[in-house]
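Mods, move this if it's the wrong board.
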Amino acid sequence: MSADDLSDEQVISRFRNIADISESYSDRKDEYKSEILDREEQREEGTIRERIKKGIDRDKKHDTLLKQTISGFLPGGPIESQTNWKFLGAEPLSEKNIPNADALFGNPERNLALLVECKTSADRPSKALQQVYDAAEGIRDHQEYLSEKIGMEIDGLECAICIPSVEDRRLIEQIEEHEENDRDRERVFVWRIHYYDGETLDLYTDISTRESGEATHDSELAQILNASVDLTYRRQVTPAFFPSSHPKVIMEEAFSSILEERVLNDGPLRYFKESELLSELTTQTNLPHYDSNTIGNRMYETLIERFAEFDIIEEVSESETELEGEEDESLFKYRVRGKSIDTILNNLHNRYIEKAVEHQADIEAMRQVIDEFDDEQSSLGDF
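Not the wrong board. Structure tokens:
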């Protein structure tokens, strides 16, 4: 197995074990990292920085698609106002670290639930279907637990994938192939968002492997989605982020809110309290999960560790700032300059990208050392 087959976390763990054998491996890693960063400065295309920015943009597009989908089911949304269906939460069962879909909707009057996975493209349609199958299985396996959490019995479960209409063909063909070959563990509906004149959501019903009665939802959703729904995403208050949103997106959303509050109250701009960040991460207005407290606290620990590692923040004592924290409460300072919200946020953005590039270069250098170490061990074994 090559180091390229390992996740970043596996690479770090494996490298630490190798570095414990001899300090020379750490020196070799540092040498490779310097070479990688030197090449980074000389390249114009295919850089680590470019890959990181594309990854962030991809995650942002996914979050936007999810917000658009959710908007129809929020209070006052076009679907919520015309049916008994409502949004129950994002990434259900993520607190249990099991496969989950992007969103869960429900009809309390009929005890029907609907899980939806959002995809900005159909590059890997079979994987998308597998994700839905696994998420549905997770809900069925934890049905009693989830029912208690969302305050609704689940007697029936439906599944859908929401995708931009220009990307739907490959997904539809994959669904038909699964159904023709009895590989469909769930019946998956296709929701499409159109961007021709505003934003509309509809249900695709012309799947060749299905009879007419199998082509639509078994509820009033069928009628409203068959007719197409005008989404009011841009006129509604939608969630700020989701449990699996990119850390940089969460950072900017949370810190922006804290900074705006600081300006309103004429407080010290470059400092914040543990409780302030926790409040941003655990409120269901920002994080639409039925157990936002558990998820938000988990996110807080991960983000604080990441931000400290990236030299974005540092912990300070109460004497270093005008802020007053509760007993044993942590206080922090942004490790960037700025006298305005926009300047601080822009500098945080730049610092995050800079440190993310260095971090990824470190990972790539570790991969090189791991492969070389394995080759050396293999040569010794042959000898």
